[in-house]
Design goal:
23% of the residues lie in helices and 31% in strands. It has four helices and ten strands. The radius of gyration is 17 Å and the shape is elongated. It starts with a strand and ends with a strand. 38% of the residues are buried.
């Protein structure tokens, strides 16, 4: 299994600002064929809203994975709290974010690549290492650090690519704080 490095480039309590930053980075990347959704859901109301946006996600009980799961055909409402995982088209991302309320989640866009920027000395990065993650109500990719803010992470080959990370952060009015996570793909 390979890894990319997810570098935090913007953390904000302003969710519309985080979404705006994601849109800018998606425009820079040149395209996104799909989004991976990952959330921890505790509220029946949030679950209902999320299932309206993503009707058939994979999910399992976080307290007892043997107790309930999509694979077993169980009712997720009776198994809360659950971990939900799904992939889908990019146009479902913002409705999914709106459905979350205070629940933590991560959305990862699988990009076509990061562009070559000769004037900044940046070479093309192919889709193998080009991802973009927005963590909502969480600072980390896996929702282990719930918070009231939201973080935009750009993925590159390694944390030593500070020029690329900084260039992308500059495009959205953010800055690279040095906080990175290893992200398997």
């Amino acid at each position: 299994m390979s890894n990319s490095t997810a570098a935090a480039v913007l953390t904000t309590t302003d969710l519309p600002e985080a979404i705006r930053a994601v849109r800018v980075l998606l425009d820079i990347s040149g395209g996104c064929p799909e989004v991976d959704y990952d959330a921890r859901i505790t509220s029946p109301d949030v679950l209902t809203r999320v299932l309206h946006v993503l009707p058939d996600p994979d999910w399992w009980s976080t307290t007892d994975p043997e107790r309930g799961s999509a694979k077993a055909g169980d009712d997720p409402a009776g198994c809360l709290p659950i971990h939900l995982s799904h992939w889908g088209p990019p146009d479902s991302a913002e409705p999914f974010i709106a459905a979350l309320g205070p629940e933590p989640a991560a959305l990862r866009w699988d990009l076509d690549g990061w562009p070559e920027v000769p004037e900044a000395g940046l070479e093309l990065i192919t889709e193998k290492y080009a991802y973009l993650t927005l963590t909502v109500n969480s600072r980390d990719l896996y929702q282990d650090e719930p918070s009231e803010d939201h973080t935009v992470h750009v993925h590159v080959r390694s944390e030593i690519e500070t020029d690329r990370i900084g260039w992308l952060a500059d495009r959205i009015g953010g800055r690279f704080t040095g906080r990175t996570e290893s992200a398997p793909f």
